[in-house]
């Protein structure tokens, strides 16, 4: 697992540990190294969970669209309820949403 230069994962909440653990496993299964591209850093929507330590963005530029959807589906399945996994144009956004319930 690598962290993109400038990405900040300091301050991520404990609930994000499964995201990183499972994503690392899934990326390896698909022959890629997991890269975290955003955590507590970056510019996001004002209500983004990034700012609270409950979201990360994961690199997908080396996956085809089909493989990206497969990886996102596998991650969502492993994380289960309480987490949201969203496929974006150039990354997968994963967040812990149980705090909103």
* CATH uppermost class: Alpha Beta
Biggest pleated sheet: 5 strands, mixed
Q: What's the number of extended β-strand segments?
A: 5
User: Mind telling me the C-alpha Rg?
Assistant: 12 Å
SS element count, helices: 2
Overall average residue pLDDT: 91
Order of helices and strands: EHEEHEE
Low-confidence stretches: none
- What would you call the shape? globular
Write the CATH architecture name.
Answer: 2-Layer Sandwich
Distance, first to last CA: 31 Å
Number of domains: 1
β-strand amount:
15-25%
Q: Please state how the strands of the largest beta sheet are arranged side by side.
A: 1-2-3-5-4
In the CATH hierarchy, the third-tier topology is known as Muramoyl-pentapeptide Carboxypeptidase, domain 2
Structural class: alpha+beta
Q: Estimate percent helicity.
A: 25-40%
């Amino acid at each position: 697992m690598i962290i993109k230069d400038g990405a900040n994962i300091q301050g991520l909440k404990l609930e994000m540990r499964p995201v990183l653990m499972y994503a690392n496993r899934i990326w390896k299964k698909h022959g890629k190294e997991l890269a975290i591209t955003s955590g507590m850093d970056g510019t996001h929507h004002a209500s983004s969970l990034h700012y609270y330590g409950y979201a990360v963005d994961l690199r997908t530029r080396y996956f085809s669209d089909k493989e990206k959807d497969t990886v996102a589906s596998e991650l969502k399945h492993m994380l289960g309820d309480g987490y949201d996994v969203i496929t974006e144009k150039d990354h997968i956004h994963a967040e812990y949403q149980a705090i909103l319930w």
